[in-house]
Write a structure and sequence with these properties.
With 243 residues, the chain is mostly helical. The chain is 75% helix and 0% strand.
Length: 243
């Protein structure tokens, strides 16, 4: 039996019973965005081509070309943006690292003031900041979190972002093409499969973000249907005008 806590001592805290999901990784946003973009953009492209009364072969070629161009474009864009952001953070970390070496007393005082602003007594805040600065890498990590809002050990990877975007866009973009590859000659099977994929993607995202699955799925379905309808109409209009 555990001994009873002494007078004035806080009771023993119960063990943690919950776990947080990883919200710092660089894969989730580009993967979700890539799949949605692949579905909507390629469905819209193929619908526009179909609206112009093009042949099934032309629609398939357009879908495959849209898949390839979009996937490489997404991957290149994500790699460049994440790499640029990472390089900016690393440059700022170098600035902070030099400040910690050249002016440690100021940095201790700066960190102590952060803790004071959060309600810690000044003496205690200065003592804690002084102890944390005994380890240079720990001090850098804490200053990066407090001043830059980043964790130096968990910066997003441009390669992960690029690969996630490429694969997810390709998976999304191939769905409207599949019915034609299996012999379909009309547009409606491609639209149906793409809209189903959009609904499933929206529902899966809702499971990750704890939002209503049916609302998120229906929202994505309606957006995809609107894109297909508009581009089909434009294709029909331009096809008639050109013809």
């Amino acid at each position: 039996m555990n001994s009873v806590a002494g007078a004035g001592e806080p009771p023993e805290a119960p063990p943690a019973t919950h776990h947080h999901r990883d919200v710092t990784g660089g894969w989730l946003r580009p993967a979700v965005f890539g799949a949605m973009d692949g579905l909507v953009s390629n469905l819209g492209l193929m619908s526009g081509v179909a609206g112009s009364a093009a042949s099934s072969q032309t629609i398939v070629i357009s879908g495959l070309a849209g898949l390839a161009a979009g996937a490489f474009s997404m991957a290149a864009g994500e790699y460049t943006s994440v790499a640029s952001q990472r390089e900016l953070v690393l440059a700022e970390l170098d600035v902070e690292r030099r400040e910690l070496r050249s002016n440690p007393r100021y940095e201790v005082r700066e960190l102590a003031e952060v803790y004071v602003s959060r309600g810690v007594q000044p003496e205690l805040a200065y003592e804690v900041a002084t102890q944390l600065h005994r380890d240079p890498e720990q001090a850098l990590e804490i200053h990066a979190r407090e001043e830059l809002g980043v964790d130096p050990a968990e910066l997003p990877s441009p390669v992960v972002a690029a690969v996630s975007s490429f694969l997810s866009f390709s998976v999304g973009a191939i769905l409207p093409v599949l019915p034609y590859l299996f012999g379909a000659t009309a547009l409606w099977p491609a639209v149906a499969l793409a809209l189903l994929g959009l609904f499933v993607c929206g529902a899966v995202v809702a499971r990750i973000t704890a939002r209503s699955w049916w609302y998120s799925g229906l929202r994505q379905l309606l957006l995809g249907a609107a894109a297909a309808g508009v581009t089909y109409g434009l294709g029909a209009l331009f096809g008639t005008a050109v013809g």
